[in-house]
UniProtKB/TrEMBL annotation:
<keyword id="KW-0375">Hydrogen ion transport</keyword>
<feature type="transmembrane region" description="Helical">
    <location>
        <begin position="69"/>
        <end position="89"/>
    </location>
</feature>
<keyword id="KW-0999">Mitochondrion inner membrane</keyword>
<keyword id="KW-0066">ATP synthesis</keyword>
<keyword id="KW-0813">Transport</keyword>
<keyword id="KW-1133">Transmembrane helix</keyword>
<keyword id="KW-0138">CF(0)</keyword>
<dbReference type="Pfam" id="PF00119">
    <property type="entry name" value="ATP-synt_A"/>
</dbReference>
<keyword id="KW-0812">Transmembrane</keyword>
<dbReference type="GO" id="GO:0045259">
    <property type="term" value="C:proton-transporting ATP synthase complex"/>
</dbReference>
<comment type="similarity">
    <text>Belongs to the ATPase A chain family.</text>
</comment>
<keyword id="KW-0472">Membrane</keyword>
<dbReference type="InterPro" id="IPR045083">
    <property type="entry name" value="ATP_synth_F0_asu_bact/mt"/>
</dbReference>
<dbReference type="GO" id="GO:0046933">
    <property type="term" value="F:proton-transporting ATP synthase activity, rotational mechanism"/>
</dbReference>
<dbReference type="InterPro" id="IPR000568">
    <property type="entry name" value="ATP_synth_F0_asu"/>
</dbReference>
<dbReference type="InterPro" id="IPR023011">
    <property type="entry name" value="ATP_synth_F0_asu_AS"/>
</dbReference>
<protein>
    <recommendedName>
        <fullName>ATP synthase subunit a</fullName>
    </recommendedName>
</protein>
Length: 227
């Protein structure tokens, strides 16, 4: 019984072929196709407004040099947002519950920000490893601590996103199972758990949006340190 709760996090496959790539590309199918008109419908207007709002929020902590990353960060934000929200639908698979995928997104982008800093301002980037005014005996220890904190950033990004989504999905499945099991014997308690399930679902929708925003916002802050 305990193992069945985690079956939802196993990557689906068909004839031995993993379907995770299809589930990753599915959010792109929801976006309206482009044509010669700027605005074609209310849906495209809402999409443009949402993308504009996301871009403004992500570019706010960055200077003009960091605006070159607007397309990458906004695309990542929209991808994570749609993937997280689609994963809350019944009988769906959420790719962002896989730590391997989240690390595959976090590590290259984090490494790109670090390499950008080393190329544009190597002295300032390396200076973050040793705060000014550090006593001489503490220099080796502080360099080791700062280097470790720098290297652990992509791992923290991936684990944070994975843990929050996984915990939410497990809670939803546990409470829904309890609601179904209590319905024949204690319908009143079952209705109460159903209300809790609805409130938890609303909370998970908010968590899905917030975690996508936090993931990309932290990447933009890492970028700001290196430009």
């Amino acid at each position: 019984m305990n193992l069945s709760f985690f079956d939802q996090f196993s990557s689906p496959s068909l004839l031995g072929i993993p379907l995770i790539l299809i589930s990753m590309t599915f959010p792109a199918l929801l976006l309206p196709s482009q044509n010669n008109r700027w605005i074609t419908s209310r849906l495209s207007t809402l999409q443009l407004w949402l993308v504009n709002l996301i871009t403004k929020q992500l570019m706010m902590p960055l200077n003009k040099k960091g605006h070159k990353w607007a397309l990458i960060l906004t695309s990542l934000m929209v991808f994570l947002l749609l993937t997280n929200l689609l994963g809350l639908l019944p009988y769906t698979f959420t790719p962002t519950t896989q730590l391997s995928m989240n690390l595959a997104l976090a590590i290259p982008l984090w490494l790109a920000t670090v390499l950008t800093g080393l190329r544009n301002q190597p002295s300032a980037s390396l200076g973050h490893l040793l705060p000014e005014g550090t006593p001489t005996p503490l220099i080796p220890a502080l360099i080791l601590i700062e280097t470790t904190s720098l290297l652990i950033r992509p791992l923290a990004l991936g684990v944070r996103l994975t843990a929050n989504l996984t915990a939410g999905h497990l809670l939803i499945q546990l409470i829904s199972t309890a609601t179904t099991a209590l319905l024949p014997t204690m319908p009143t308690v079952s209705l109460l758990t159903l209300l809790i399930l609805l409130l938890l679902t609303i909370l998970e929708v908010a968590v899905a949006m917030i975690q996508a925003y936090v993931f990309v916002l932290l990447l933009s802050l890492y970028l700001q340190e290196n430009i």
